[in-house]
Amino acid sequence: MAALCIAGSLAAADPVRDYVLPRQQAILKEYAALIEIPNVSSDLPNLRRNADRIQQMYEKRGVPTRLLTLKNYAPIVFGEIKTPGAKRTINFYAHYDGQPVDPADWTTRQPFLPELRDQNNQVIPLEQTTYNSNWRLHGRSSSDDKAPIMAMAIALDAIKSLGLKHKSNIRFFFEGEEEAGSIHLTEYLQQYKELVMGDLWLICDGPVHQNRQQSIVFGVRGATNIEITVYGPKRALHSGHYGGWVPNPAQRLTRLISGFSDGEGHILIKDFYKDIVPYNASEIAAIKKIPPVEDLLREEFGLAETEGDGKPLLETYSRPTLNLRGIRAGDVGKGGVNVIPAEATATFDIRLVKGLDAKTQVERVTAHLIAQGYLVLNRPPTDEERLKHAKILRLTSREGYNSVRSPLDMPIAQDVIKAVEFSSGPVVLIPSSGGSVPLAMFVEVTKMPLVMVPIANHDNNQHAPNENLRLQNLWDGISLMAALLTRL
Amino acid sequence: MAALCIAGSLAAADPVRDYVLPRQQAILKEYAALIEIPNVSSDLPNLRRNADRIQQMYEKRGVPTRLLTLKNYAPIVFGEIKTPGAKRTINFYAHYDGQPVDPADWTTRQPFLPELRDQNNQVIPLEQTTYNSNWRLHGRSSSDDKAPIMAMAIALDAIKSLGLKHKSNIRFFFEGEEEAGSIHLTEYLQQYKELVMGDLWLICDGPVHQNRQQSIVFGVRGATNIEITVYGPKRALHSGHYGGWVPNPAQRLTRLISGFSDGEGHILIKDFYKDIVPYNASEIAAIKKIPPVEDLLREEFGLAETEGDGKPLLETYSRPTLNLRGIRAGDVGKGGVNVIPAEATATFDIRLVKGLDAKTQVERVTAHLIAQGYLVLNRPPTDEERLKHAKILRLTSREGYNSVRSPLDMPIAQDVIKAVEFSSGPVVLIPSSGGSVPLAMFVEVTKMPLVMVPIANHDNNQHAPNENLRLQNLWDGISLMAALLTRL
């Protein structure tokens, strides 16, 4: 069968694919109904609606489910299939919440409106006789991360219809706070520890490799956020009357941010790279086996040059980042007015690698800011502080989570690789994803190993407007999930 | 009378003040009705409504008026009082348009809703028996620059009621595009040159001195704007998957902006300070006579330190500025998401002083950007350009206008000073305002001298939300305009 599999192609012999083909329209309609339930992390009533819907979807397929609840947090949808004679228990993780939605970014479409779009990005009716594999289903969380939840449900239908059997006990564990930093996941895992203890976490999140080959990922970068507000005059001032005399907080903020790096992607904050556990030989070797995608990506993104000292993209995931994800002061374009803004705010995501701790990394940034002469507060300054300190900023940070990396050569990993190869052909083994999923707490609380099996396309515009799932990735994902549900 | 006048006090003997006092409520009601007509520079239909209203206000007071029109530009309201035996013709300039309004900044009130607020900033009914002189009338353009238009109208009522006479021919020239940079004013002046030729332009715009003394201003800084957009990847990218490899355009923009200055208010762009005509001895002497306001302002603005090398605020007006009035990329706060933004934009206002040319100054900034390795375009890059150039930005600039300064010792200036002292007591003589009004074209086209007589309070929040006019400044302004209309 391996001879049939080239990059991006399908494993032709999988009967699950034959099951899916005549049912594509029904699958997409069920999926669209799931996408259209809003799932912003801060919107608890709608998160509960998502959880209820998912519970119904799995109950309908014969999976006993329950909602794990704790305080007023978004519930975890938990389901369990007990398999007689099973020697292992496999936990399938995904999350049903999505990133925040800024209405200003969604002027041409509604974030939660599912839309089928053809290769030319034109909206077409969801109901079609046949579906081109490169069409895409648009909508917030169509890829990140409702896709695996849908794929597993259809895989269960296929398994039943084809008379396939599970080898292991199967658990479903669908979180509702991942995009808010999984801030209560540790508490949930501790509370429900006995319910979830098993042999392996299969984390179903993130995109497959950029060449569209299926990948298995053995770790993730950790992540935390910081937001910095530099204070200027107590109110916005006319830039003619006071420009050149009143310090401009936006100008000062740009100076601070510029000083964070050398302009070529290297962070200059003291000890920012300290304590990093570099990739070992087997991790570097795995990366070397992966078909290079860098030239393709540079062309796709329209970039003449990239950072990372010429290393392959995946090797740069061994480094932490300090990404300026947003900056705001005054206004630009038609809204721009001639003022010295009263304050200027920038927000960053810090990606962490093995060996780094989220809190320590924030402390290093804080120390850098203090070294630049700033009074660093976690609140706006008082009038007294303003008159005493020339440079004042507020720094807030979100409780982040650390990186985790599982060994590439642990025994259960070999079984996962075989199952994935059955459905998807040769796989790409990735020591660490560049993205972040709260995995550290899984390992810390349950001491279980984990691997990630993503299904979304890499060009899914995850976290941005126009998030989408390529249809072929959904069909592939269903086969993949069926293989993992029956062959592990 | 001079003995009666201390800083901020009134010239008690002016009969115009006695005229105004019992009519304050009616004046404020007429003014509120003018403020509530929206006047954003880009909103031509509403600008025309303002022009019509002002024309009616002056016609009602017996001033023959007409609308000067040109193409589809906002009209100029022009009025003329011919005085038999007059030896001079004085042109009174003001503008009826206002700065753009960003709805995000106006969440607590409507921009064009006139509101009377007491000393505690509480809204109170417009109709009152007596009015505290420190109450303020809030609303866009309440100070900048509908206030002089209103003050002149009431001054005409007082002149008629008190039987005062004009000495000179009087002209009113009210522009509707000042906040858009007076982009068609030169064309208007050229077209209607014969209609406007006279002996003096009295420019009624801007605020009085910060100690609330009446000021006469002999010049203004020029102004232009630039907007810079730095381009990153063709679409926003997930900061986990691509952070540390794809260059972040917001980070790059902060680096560029940081390099514009030394962090202490000095611009580092080559030749930015070249060709400046410094203040001469009489200008420095005038500044030295002005009561210092710096400590007061620092306390009011909540600033421990200011820029300008320790010079008085007014002396810093002899320097050009490059003010970062707005910067935007991605989002901050709850809207912040973990992406590398596709682009980052910053907008600046450049203040110009005597000797500098707006175009040349923009060229100097452009040269600086090119020297940083950027391909500088005036449009978004093509795909080809993206793949060829690592650093690309778009720079757009608005057609600006240059600075102008009239000699402090020209003969007609002495008459203006005397008229102002009659209504307002000792005046503050200011060689140049920090702000900008399009005066260069007045001088270039008509070769007439000009001086500015502002009436607004310095703390009027001009250009910012919560723009307001202190009531005493309106009453003072009426007396001032009556004196200028009759004593010149």
Structure description:
Two copies of one chain form a homodimer. Chain A is of the alpha/beta class and 488 residues long. Chain A has two domains: 2-220 and 403-487, 3-Layer(aba) Sandwich (Aminopeptidase), CATH 3.40.630.10; 222-276 and 319-397, 2-Layer Sandwich (Alpha-Beta Plaits), CATH 3.30.70. Chain A is built from 15 helices and 21 strands. Chain A has helices at 15-20, 24-35, 44-60, 146-162, 185-191, 193-196, 239-242, 249-258, 281-289, 294-301, 358-371, 383-388, 411-424, 440-446, 471-487; strands at 65-68, 76-81, 89-95, 115-117, 123-124, 136-138, 169-175, 200-203, 215-217, 219-220, 222-231, 237-238, 321-330, 339-340, 343-352, 375-377, 392-397, 404-405, 428-430, 450-452, 468-470. Chain A has a six-stranded mixed beta sheet with strand order 1-2-7-3-8-20, with helices on one face. In chain A, α4 (146-162) crosses α15 (471-487) and α5 (185-191) packs parallel to α14 (440-446). Chain A is globular, with a radius of gyration of 24 Å. Chains A and B meet through β11, β12, α7, α8 and α10 of A and β11, β12, α7, α8 and α10 of B.
In short:
The structure is a homodimer of 488-residue chains. The first copy, chain A, has 488 residues and is an alpha/beta fold.
What order do the helices and strands come in, and which of them pair?
Two copies of one chain form a homodimer.
Chain A: H1 15-20, H2 24-35, H3 44-60, E1 65-68, E2 76-81, E3 89-95, E4 115-117, E5 123-124, E6 136-138, H4 146-162, E7 169-175, H5 185-191, H6 193-196, E8 200-203, E9 215-217, E10 219-220, E11 222-231, E12 237-238, H7 239-242, H8 249-258, H9 281-289, H10 294-301, E13 321-330, E14 339-340, E15 343-352, H11 358-371, E16 375-377, H12 383-388, E17 392-397, E18 404-405, H13 411-424, E19 428-430, H14 440-446, E20 450-452, E21 468-470, H15 471-487
Parallel strand pairs in A: 3-7, 3-8, 8-20, 9-19, 16-17
Antiparallel strand pairs in A: 1-2, 2-7, 4-5, 4-6, 6-21, 10-18, 11-15, 11-17, 12-14, 13-15
